[in-house]
Amino acid sequence: MKKIAVVDIEATGPNFEKGDRMIQIAAVIYQDGKILGQHNMYINPEMAIPQHIQQLTGITQDVVEKAPTFKQVAPLWYERLKDCLIVAHNLAFDLVMLQESFLWANEVNFNPSAIDTVKLAKILVPWADGFNLTQLANYYELPYKDAHDAASDAYITMQILSKLGDEVLNLDNELFNRLYPYIVHLPHDEKEFFDQPQMFLIQTQYDSIVFNDNLTIEHEQNYSLISQLIVEKISHHPRLIFEKMNPAIKNSELVDVIKQLAFTKPMVIGFESLNRLNWFVEQLDELMDKGSVVVLKKDNHYLHLPAFEELIATKEIHLLNQQEIISIAATIRWLSTTQTGDYAEIRDELVVQPLLEKYCRSTLANKVNPFYSSLIKAAKKTDLILMEAQKISTANLQTESYLFNRRILILNYEDWVEKQRLNQQSRLSVSFLFTELQSVFDYFVYQATLQPNENELNIQLNRLMDIFYELNEVLKNYIDKSDEVKSTKHSYEYFLSDSLIFELNIGCFLNELKAIALSIDHLLKQARVVTDYRLQRLIQLILTFVYQDSDQYLIVKGQFSNHFVHNIELIARPLFIENPFNENPKQEVYLFSRRFYQYKQKSGSYQWLKNNHFQPLQLPNQIEQSIDIKLPVGYINTTDFTLDNNTEQDWLTDDTIAIKQQVDFLTDFSDQLENRIIILAANQKAKELTYEMIKKSKILTELYGVLCPGINGSLNRVLRRQEEMEKSILILTFSNCYSFQMNDIKTKRTILIQRLPFANPNVPILNALAKYNRWDSHLEFNQLHLPLMQSRLNDLVLQLAVNPTVDQLYLFDDRVFTKYYSYELRNNLNPWINFLIYDD
Questions:
Q1: Which of 129, 229, 356, 563 is deepest in the core (most CB within 10 A)?
Q2: What's the pLDDT tens digit per position in 787-824?
């Protein structure tokens, strides 16, 4: 049998061509299941090791200065490895660094057979929590302490490789044969691993995790007082809206509520996001184990088996890229174990849904999804349904039998109302309709469908296209001239006031479009006109657009990319949502409010709550421990103290100077802050600007790794990377912070909040409410923006403070002391939040 060398390398950085060099190399060499040798050596890179690499690896400059250079030891390592099959975890780094180093040191081309354990793990255990060494060691219950030490990493990689060999040996023949064609097309020698998995097994004994058999599970439940109060009130009132201001209702309290109510009567729980739903599922594992619980998501969150089988049957493997091959192979493997087809069981990067939407769209649309269909059948019979709240809509409450006569709990009422507003809106896709009408007309002309005696339809179609073109240009020019600074590839929505609707002549455009569409619809219904379904569909899209000034507000939406506005739409959104619970007035419904002020305002939620006998219940405040937020006044761009009514500056602030001062604070106090820092930026633009400024700081980049979602990958990816770094700065927006559970974070953090979380003043619903209530700017600020900011700050601090790893909180905004509303703001949040002047 061939010798196997499991290699791991630490280096000054990832790119040899840009000057990065090796600082440690380790290898475990084994054959026939027996370890032949373990080798570990520090390497002098003949350059300074960046500070963040020293912190990540524990390898200091002093250590490597006493070590040999790679040129001095290259012949030794070449002799060790030349006859071996090389295995590494992320071969793209270790093998390339090794090849480049050999070529640079003694002009030797090193081209061994090689295997990447990352690719193997993704295919063979796609349901693992992740695919770095720590996550895979946890999955296989292997002891592993010294991450980013090359010797430790090489040894754990060998153990994981052996476990993966067992996975291959345990595959049945049918599953093996389905996987094998995809393995053959991987870029290295993973085929050899599947051909001879026994060659990679190790016989050498290694320590395993010892479990304490004396551990017992405590069955007696100690539910929180708030949750017990909520359950008591539910037993006596059919419709309630719960709110708790200081602090807001905790996730842990809601978990307790669900546990107490589960199985008392059929019930459905609605969550505002998939992330929050998945988090609650993890917390409710005891209920899940008892059965009679169904987790119901949108159908595209479940593997569409007919579409996947079509993909395998019709798509030639050599036409797929490497990521597509790995995703398909991982899905084949996952199918051998899954009972639900829920993509949440595997890692996001392996989800095959984008491929199905790309290659099998017709099958997705026209064939039943067996996994989802089975889930709907189970939901009709189950006691407890956990689902995304958006599906608890007016239409579904009337048509989906699994929702009939169930007690309903909606855990974020405000978010649910906004999503109902979106469900009930009417859209006129101006750019799309103009383009499609042109395409249809050109097709008719080419096919000679429009005969000379059909001039009326010809004239009407031309006029319709002209109006769409004019409307598209008017709206595009308006978006172009707006004051808002636009970022690439972002969508923007603008509220159209009465004066703007008049100025842009929107009403006339809509009336004329409707009249011509009705005329064309009449012509199409006459037998003498021959056409295809596309024009009929486009005309119906125009006729179904409804805008009524008294009940709706009008928005123009556009996509901005490469300095060009496109995909322009007009959206008529309801100010007052339709009553979703009219059909069954006896149905028990309980809403949990996170933003206490909204139901009191004349928003789209207020009237139907009142008309449906919802009773607001203010839960008692429970201040277990107050939260200190420090204001480092020496690093805050001080605002002028004012008591006047000019509130514009409270909505729109220039963050450039403020961000510069925060960077100075980080530099000056880095020795007093935690190793892991999270900066919460006010918006996307501020987040990107913060990242740019920190990256320009030589001191900070040497001390910390700097991470930012959208720049360094997805939110989940940068969160994982921060956990792996010894010292890091993670830059998020407020919305990012709500997208994940701080409870998942295990190490201490310092949190820097850039400024008070005021909403953008151009949010259309806020503009619409101000118009409806006839508020001037001062009333709009006091009635909407100020309480909304207070609520968001409350939620934000709760999100941070419930986690014991959040050690320090800093706010770089002196408006909690310098504005006419400052006293009221502090008074409303006290004693839950203490604002402290920090002037060290």
A1: 356
A2: 888 878 877 777 776 666 777 899 999 899 999 989 88
Report CA-CA distances (Å) from 540 to 36, 496, 508: 75, 24, 19
Of 748, 671, 736, nearest in space to 707 by CA: 736
> Residue 342: what pLDDT?
92
Helix (H, G, I), strand (E, B) or coil at 286: helix
The pair of structure tokens assigned to 838 is 């920090």
Kindly report the CA angle at 508 between 507 and 512, in degrees rounded to 5?
Answer: 120
Q: pLDDT grade, residue 641 (50/70/90)?
A: very low
3-class SS letters over 498-526: HHHHHHCCHHHHHHHHHHHHHHHHHHHCC
Is 90 exceeded by the pLDDT of residue 55?
no
d(CA 831, CA 840) in angstroms, rounded, equals 24
Look-up of token digits 């007082």: 225
User: What gap in Å lies between CA 742 and CA 275, rounded to an integer?
Assistant: 12
User: If 0-12 CB within 10 Å is exposed, 13-18 middle and 19+ buried, where does residue 713 land?
Assistant: middle
The burial class, CB within 10 Å (0-12 / 13-18 / 19+), for 566 is middle
Would you say 142 and 156 are in contact if contact means Cβ atoms under 8 Å apart?
yes
DSSP string, 218-255: --S----HHHHHHHHHHTT-SEEEEE--SSPPPHHHHH
Please measure the distance between the N-terminal and C-terminal CA atoms of the chain and give it in whole angstroms.
Answer: 66
C-alpha dihedral, 824 to 825 to 830 to 833, nearest 10°: -170
Sign of the torsion formed by the C-alpha atoms of 478, 481, 485 and 488: positive
Kindly report the number of other CB atoms within 10 A of residue 768's CB atom.
22
Q: Is the backbone peptide bond immediately before 831 cis, with ω within 30 degrees of 0? A: yes
Alpha helices in 561-695 (DSSP H): 606-611, 648-651, 655-668, 684-695
Element (H, E) at 571: strand 564-574
Q: What's the CA gap between 121 and 330, in Å, rounded?
A: 9
The pLDDT, as a whole number, for residue 611 is 64
Backbone torsions φ then ψ of 26, nearest 5 degrees: -140, 150
Hey, is 337 helix, strand or coil? Answer: coil
Q: Residue 641 in 3-state DSSP?
A: coil
- What's the CA gap between 755 and 293, in Å, rounded? 42
Are the CB atoms for 422 and 571 separated by under 8 Å?
A: no
Structure tokens at 276: 């929050």
Backbone angles phi, psi at 398, to 5 degrees: -95, -20
Measured at the CA of 151, the angle between CA 146 and CA 153, to 5 degrees, comes to: 60
Is the Cβ–Cβ distance between 437 and 461 less than 8 Å? yes
Quickly list DSSP for 536-578: HHHHHHHHT----TTTEEEEEEEEEETTEEEEEEEEEEESS--
The identity of residue 333, as a single letter, is R
Tell me the two tokens of residue 232.
Answer: 């008591």
Q: What is the pLDDT of residues 56-110, one digit of tens each?
A: 888 999 999 989 999 998 988 998 999 999 999 999 999 999 999 999 987 788 9
Q: Is the pLDDT of residue 43 over 60?
A: yes
Read off φ and ψ for residue 681, nearest 5 degrees. Answer: -85, 155
| Structure tokens given for 328 | 């398909």
Element (H, E) at 591: strand 589-593
Apex CA 404: angle with CA 402 and CA 405, to 5°?
Answer: 130
DSSP string, 353-410: HHHHHHH-HHHHHHS--HHHHHHHHHHHH-SEEEEEGGGS-HHHHHH-GGGTT-EEEE
d(CA 547, CA 431): 18
Averaged over 710-735, what is the pLDDT? 82
Q: What are phi and psi of 449, to 5 degrees?
A: -70, -40
- DSSP bridge pairs for 185: none
**How far apart are the C-alpha atoms of 743 and 741, rounded to whole Å?**
5
Q: Which residue has the tokens 């059965």?
A: 291
Query: What mean pLDDT, rounded, does the chain reach?
Result: 84
- 141 Rama class: left (phi>0) / alpha (psi -120 to 50) / beta: left
